[in-house]
From TrEMBL:
Family: Belongs to the GMC oxidoreductase family.
Name of the molecule in the record: Glucose-methanol-choline oxidoreductase N-terminal domain-containing protein
Flavoprotein in keyword set: yes
Keywords recorded for this protein, A-Z: FAD, Flavoprotein
Sample GO molecular function, one term: oxidoreductase activity, acting on CH-OH group of donors
Co-factor requirement: FAD
Disordered: region residues: 68-98
Residue positions binding FAD: 314
Gene3D superfamilies cross-referenced by the UniProt entry: FAD/NAD(P)-binding domain (3.50.50.60), Glucose Oxidase, domain 3 (3.30.560.10)
Alphabetical list of InterPro entries matching this protein: FAD/NAD-bd_sf (IPR036188), GMC_OxRdtase (IPR012132), GMC_OxRdtase_N (IPR000172), GMC_OxRtase_C (IPR007867)
The Glucose-methanol-choline oxidoreductase C-terminal domain, residue ranges: 527-654
């Protein structure tokens, strides 16, 4: 494996991993990249303008969606061939007279996979997908492409941290990074592709075998050796990092020098050792482009029966009482400053509908996919929470979980000044490669075609039980770009000072819990100004156990960083630079959110009497308890936060929701034919 400096392909930046630890010296040019990348972060808006002038701004659409070749659908799977000329994605609300089989609220990864599965299952279904954001991948908003690349800023992997700190792509919620784009938070995450572990799904009501199969069905893994647990035919593209940045590569080799396990499968092998040690992550990147679910679903497989309307903020779900139970009628949303309503088909005349007396099956309905922060707000607006007048659901907004994180920052020695011309050259080379992408290889796209990071590790602290997985995740950032660290940390770094590397230490199974507090909602107001936003409050702070694990994680990383080769390039510890009780106090005062939010509308399982626990919001089929025709299919349904990044598991939730609906409809269709 070779290591690449993020701003250059000079041969001196490469070195073989089979070296003598005692004699290696870090290549001087390998260090140059850190100041350059900090410079890019700070002056990106200016560089963007200058590069646009120099290189030309492209306003054309992309003929090739930059996806790896699509496999042929199996005879048993729903048809995946798109109908010609699907309706354009529009910001114009549909006529109030239009009725839908399913209305989905939120176009994050889960909502997109659910929408796609439903639309491809039957051409007769009519599906409405509402999204509050307006910007997306180039296959969705081609007029936004930049730098003669044919891509939007959301498509270029290296720019993810810029996007994740830009307010126009986010909900204005304090201490959170909640995506507000067509593609949701899947358009600004760091593209790490990390699956959940078997132990994560205890208490879900789902069998691990079904979940593992779900990961395989959503995955289209490119390259790599064949593994029985890998998927090759799904929508979610994954691949191993072709480039390993110099700091990340040195970190892995220092782990090797310390005798730690080196993982070769992106930490995704479901076996017992698959989530321990150090290694290179898998990423949702291919051919130098972010492989978002939006690109896969809206750029390749969208059909005419899926209507996507952007710029639409869902206010509430509408109900009517049928045979003693509240049944969903449709949704109310704001578009263009006006309140609009979209309703479901009534089902009259075909014996189906939402309010059937003997069934809670989703023949038609509304599925909330706005995420673990915004879905509780919509639920509360709709009268579905602990003080609700439609159904009292005590768990709405409660049990909110994340991976609390702290940042270990080190200075990097011996650097030269940055050059704007080097950056402009990289931009031009990146654009040229994209034009010839059919002949280019994944590793030819340079640093702009990467997230700017590659490596990390999972470690098991002395505070975890014998049967438990790792409880610490470390990610190596060659520069201080992690959005929560750069936005929320109290001790800010200056990009023009001595460059620094960041090692994030995240707690994977915290005792800490937060809650979503819904904003006040006035249903009689038609003003957009009255659209309420939730707040996030700590419910249970970091426990002593949480602090002990994070402290151990920091100390463990420090020991790794003492070993060569990484010790040869690092200078002094910049932060926290504390030990003992002072370090414990620092952790309590400086831990940050990671925006891996889950659990605020959690799934429950019935007991022997058929009753659910008091905080359960949905059942094992994701149906909201106490009403008919309403499901939730986003990260909020997870009872516990998964072991690692949550994006892939959110995708499984969306796909499973679609399978629950389609499977039931197929079974009913068969029964009707028999009759």
């Amino acid at each position: 494996m070779s290591f690449l400096s993020p701003f250059g392909r000079d041969n001196s930046l490469y070195y073989d991993s089979d070296y003598d630890n005692s004699t290696i010296a870090a290549p001087p040019l390998a260090k140059l990249n850190y100041r350059l990348r900090s410079f890019l972060k700070t002056y990106f808006p200016i560089l963007l303008f200058l590069s646009g002038v120099l290189l030309g701004v492209s306003l054309h659409s992309v003929p090739n969606p930059l996806l790896p070749p699509s496999p042929s659908p199996s005879p048993s799977s729903p048809s995946s061939s798109p109908t010609s000329s699907p309706p354009p994605i529009t910001s114009t609300p549909p006529p109030s007279t239009t009725r839908y089989d399913y209305i989905i609220t939120g176009s994050g990864p889960s909502g997109l996979l659910l929408s796609s599965h439903l639309s491809l299952s039957s051409p007769t279904l009519k599906i409405l997908l509402l999204e509050s954001g307006t910007t997306s991948t180039s296959t969705v908003t081609p007029s936004s492409t930049i730098l003669n690349t044919g891509l939007t800023i959301l498509d270029i992997p290296l720019l993810w941290s810029y996007v994740a700190t830009t307010s126009s792509y986010l909900w204005p919620i304090k201490n959170a990074r909640v995506g507000r784009t067509i593609g949701g938070s899947g358009m600004h995450n760091a593209m790490l592709y990390v699956r959940g572990r078997e132990r994560d799904f205890k208490g879900w009501g789902w069998r691990w075998e079904d979940v593992l199969e779900g990961y395989k069905r959503i995955e289209r893994y490119v390259g790599g050796e064949e593994r029985g647990w890998r998927g090759r035919e799904g929508e979610v593209v994954g691949s191993k990092a072709e480039y390993v940045d110099a700091v990340g590569g040195m970190f892995v080799e220092s782990c090797r020098a310390k005798g730690l396990r080196i993982d070769e499968d992106g930490f995704n092998d479901p076996g017992e050792e698959g989530r321990t040690g150090c290694g290179v992550y898998d990423f949702n990147v291919f051919n130098g482009t972010r492989q978002s679910v939006a690109r896969a679903v809206l750029g390749e497989k969208r059909r005419r029966n899926l209507h996507v309307v952007s710029g639409s903020e869902v206010r509430r779900v509408l109900f009517s009482k049928e045979k003693g139970k509240q049944s969903v009628r449709g949704v109310e949303f704001i578009n263009g400053g006006e309140v609009h309503v979209s309703l479901l088909k009534s089902g009259k005349g075909d014996g189906e509908g939402l309010g059937t007396e003997d069934s809670d099956d989703m023949e038609r309905g509304v599925i909330l996919t706005a995420g673990a922060i915004m879905t509780p707000q919509i639920m509360a607006n709709s009268g579905l929470w602990e003080h609700g007048d439609v159904a009292k659901l005590k768990g709405v907004g409660k049990n909110l979980q994340d991976h609390p994180v702290v940042g270990l920052i080190y200075e990097i020695d011996e650097l030269n000044e940055p050059s704007v011309y080097t950056i402009s050259t990289q931009l031009k080379e990146y654009g040229d490669k994209l034009k010839n992408r059919e002949s280019a290889k994944n590793e030819d796209f340079g640093v702009l075609g990467t997230p700017g990071l590659s490596s990390g590790g999972f470690f098991k602290s002395p505070y975890s039980g014998e049967a438990e997985d790792s409880d610490i995740q470390v990610t190596v950032f060659p520069r201080v770009t992690e959005p929560h660290i750069t936005s929320f940390m109290k001790n800010k770094t200056n990009p023009l000072e001595k460059p620094k590397a960041l090692f994030t230490v995240a707690l994977l199974r915290p005792d800490m819990r937060s809650k979503v507090v819904p904003g006040p909602f006035n249903s009689s107001s038609a003003s957009k100004k009255d659209f309420p936003l939730p707040t996030i409050e700590v419910d249970v702070p970091l426990s002593e156990r949480d602090v002990n694990i994070l402290k151990w994680g920091i100390e463990h990383v420090r020991e790794i960083l003492k070993a060569p080769p990484i010790s040869t390039v690092l200078g002094d510890e910049y932060s926290p630079n504390k030990n003992g009780d002072e370090l414990r106090k620092w952790i309590k005062a400086n831990h940050l959110p990671n925006s891996h939010w889950v659990g605020s509308t959690k799934m429950g399982q019935p007991n022997a009497s058929g009753n659910y626990d008091e905080y359960a919001v949905v059942d094992e089929k994701l149906r909201v308890l106490g009403v008919k025709g309403l499901m939730i299919a986003d990260a909020g349904i997870m009872p516990n936060v998964p072991n690692g990044n949550v994006h892939s598991t959110v995708c499984v939730v969306g796909r499973r929701a679609g399978e629950f609906i389609v499977g039931k409809k197929k079974d009913k269709d068969k029964d009707k034919k028999k009759k």
